[in-house]
Amino acid sequence: MPPRGEFILFSNCLPILNLCFVNRAPDGRRVAYPVNSVVAMHDTRDGTQTHLFGHTERVHLLCFGRDGRVLVTGQRGRHPVIKVWDVETGQCVATLYAHASGLKSLDVSPDGTAVVAAGTDTSGRQMIAVWDIGAVTHGGFAPMTLRHRTDYHVNCVRFSPFEEDHLVTCGKNSIRTYRLRKGQLRGCSVDLGDLRLSKLAPKTNQFQKKDEFELNDFTVVAFEIGYGLAVSLFLFLFPYIWAIRMTSCFVYRI
Length: 254
Hints:
Layout: E1 23-24, E2 30-35, E3 38-43, E4 49-52, E5 59-64, E6 70-75, E7 82-86, E8 91-96, E9 101-108, E10 114-120, E11 126-132, E12 144-150, E13 156-159, E14 166-171, E15 174-181, E16 184-189, E17 197-199, E18 213-215, E19 217-224, E20 230-237, E21 240-246
Antiparallel strand pairs: 1-2, 2-3, 3-4, 5-6, 6-7, 7-8, 9-10, 10-11, 11-12, 13-14, 14-15, 15-16, 17-18, 19-20, 20-21
C-alpha cells in the first residue's frame, strides 16, 4: 500500500501508452488517463477503477471540471469527438462535434459551465469552439455557443481563472488573449518583442557563417496564482525545452 497522499497508476485492461496525459481531479480524489480509446478513472481513496467507453479513436486530451463532477475527453483523427462524462456515474452526458481534424487542446471553464476546444476546420484554418455544458448533468443539452476561426496558430487554449469569459491561446509565434462577448471572440495579441525569434543551437558545419533563427512555438499556457495576474508559458525549441515565466507584460484587459 503506497503512503497516504501517494498512489500508483495501473490499468487492468490495456497497457498505458503515455502517462503525460494523466489528469488529476482538483479534489485529488480521482485520476484519469487514456488507454487507447478507453479512459480509465482511478479512485485514489479505495483504489477502484472505472473505465469509460465510447471513443472510436485514441484519446489524447483530458480535463476535469474544477469541482471534479465532470470529465471532458477528446480523441485524435478526422472529425474528432469530445465527450463530457458524469464522474459519479461514469456515464457520457454529452458528445460534442465542431472540428474537422487536428484537435489540439480543450479546457473547462472555472465555473464548470463551458468547454472550449481548439482544432482545425475543413479548410485547415484554426478554429476555437465553445459549448455550454451547464445543464448536461441534469439531462440537458450542450449547445455550441461560439465557433471562431482565426489565422493565428493555436497549440493550447485555456480559460482565464482570473477574469470571467476570458481565454488565452498560444501557438507558433503567437500568444493571444480573448474576451467572449455577445457570441463573439474579440482578441488581442501579446507583443512578444525579443521572443519572436530564437537562436538555434550551432551546427557542426564549418561553412556556416551566420547564426540561424526560427519562430518560437509556444505549447502550454499555465496560470500562476498568488503573484498577481501572471502567466507561465513553456516554450518548445527542438531539441531543447525551456521554461519561461512572463509576468505583467503578458496581462491585457480587452
